[in-house]
Each structure stands twice: as C-alpha cells, then as structure tokens.
Amino acid sequence: MKKIALSGAGGQLGSVVRTALIARGIPLRSAGGTKPLVALVEREDVMHGDLRDPAIVDRLLNGVDVLIHFAGTSVERPLPEIIDNNLRALVEVYEGARRQGVRRVVFASSNHAIGMYPVTEHLELDCALRPDGFYGLSKVWGEALARMYWDKHGIESICVRIGSCLERPTEPRHLSTWFGHSDLMHFLDRCIEAESVGFMTVWGVSANTRSWWDNCGAERLGYEPTQNAEDYAAQVLAGPNPLDALGQRYQGGSFVGLDYSREDSASDGSSAPAAQPI
Ligand code: 15L
Fold first, then answer.
1. Is this structure's pTM higher than 0.90?
2. Per the CB 3.0–4.6 Å rule, which of 165, 248, 266, 267 could disulfide with 179?
3. Cα separation values, 169 from 17, 181, 184, 210, 260, Å
4. Is 232 a catalytic residue?
C-alpha cells in the first residue's frame, strides 16, 4: 500500500481530507502547522511544525510515496506571510521530496491564479494565468515550481486549481466554482492511484452546469466528477448575492476587490491588452 502524507491536516479542507482518507483505511501521516494534532485512529502518524524547517519536512516525507500538500496560507494576506508560507515553505517541501524520494505531490493551487478573468470567459487548462492578488500569485509561482521539479528532478505533480470546496454551494458564484467533497475525495483517490502523471494541472471543480472551466485535460487522471452545483441552484438563487458588482464580474469573486485601484471598476478586463500565456 502506498504511503500517503497530508500537510495542512488541521486546516479547513485538510480536516475533511484527513477524516475521509482515514475512513478509507489509508495509513496516513498527517501534519499540522502550529498546533499539535491528536491521532484520529491508532495507525495515524501525526506531527506538526513549520515546513520552512528541512528537519520537519524530512519527518513529514520520510518513506512517503504521495504528498497531498494542503498547507499554506489559503486567503489573501500581507505579502511577507504569503512569501513564508506559500513560497519558502513550498521550496522546502519540494527539496524534501527530492531528498526523501517522494514520487508525487498533489499541490493545492487555486482558482485565484486566474481570478482576473471575467465570468463571461471559459477557460482551458492551458489559459494564461491572471492572478487576482498576492495569494493567487503565490499559486502561479507554486504551479511553475512544481513544473520545474518535474522537469529537473522527475518529481510528479498534480496542481489542482481548487474552486470553492464546500459541502454545498451557498452563493451564486459557487454555481460555477463548486468542488463538492465527494468529488474532492474521488479526485484525490485518482491522484493516489493513477499511473504515470508527470506534471499536470487540473481544475478542482465538480461537474457544474455553469462551470467556467474546461477540464478535459484531466481525463488521463481518470477524474470523473458526479456532483453538480445546479442541484442547489433554486435554493442558492433565492438568497442574497454577497458579492459586490466587481466581485460578480470576475471569476475570483471577492478577492478581486481587495486592494483594487483601477478607476474603471466597471472594466471587464477586455480593454486590457490580451493576456499572454506565462
Ligand atoms: C480559495 O482559494 C480559498 O482558499 C477559499 O477560501 C475560497 O475563497 C475559494 O478559493 C473560492 O474562490 O471560493
């Protein structure tokens, strides 16, 4: 049986994944950040610590086949925090993967790597990246870093651009961005089980009727989502929309308006020069 490690196991999404993987009988190594974790079952190997420290990373990755890397800052925060948690720690994680011979990393990227696209655009997996803040920018960097470690060191990566991973959609934007928990777990099963994946990027999204993202490149992973936010549409659309006009216009939603200073706040980005793939 493959040895799986999960970083960010104490986080919002990490806790969901941790519980589900343990329920599947996987002998998991779970890592928290600052707070110690209490093992959920006897066979769970728990630890915690700062992933900028190579000794902590070695403890996390020793004997591991697949790392599910969900640790890091997951919202817009001041740049120094993002640099520490999402840039520096990620380098240490991949360097640790080299030292410890980890075969594959599942990297939690985010839709905020492309958040500045208007909601009217449909995106392929190879679209130009248009981050909506420093957090999204850190995911652009992370995806490129994962690519480099495949190209130079043969460490496989699956970068998952997670949409809105929630038990159920609660606002209109989620009708396009929702990633249901059952689809998330099926996705992770595929990430663990799929044969050779090399480097790939995938949208972390359910089979939403209103999705903005074309996931056909994910076929070779065998990811076949079954959840659809549309099942909740009537309920969701009967409620208020928490997003302001700017947030409703761009795929990144509320992240777009943070530190936004263009005067033409009505712009849909179409007046900007065409984005080039990076
Ligand atoms: C993310 O990347 C965040 O981690 C999460 O908190 C949500 O904001 C999500 O994106 C989203 O866009 O809904």
1. yes
2. 165
3. 18, 11, 14, 12, 26
4. no
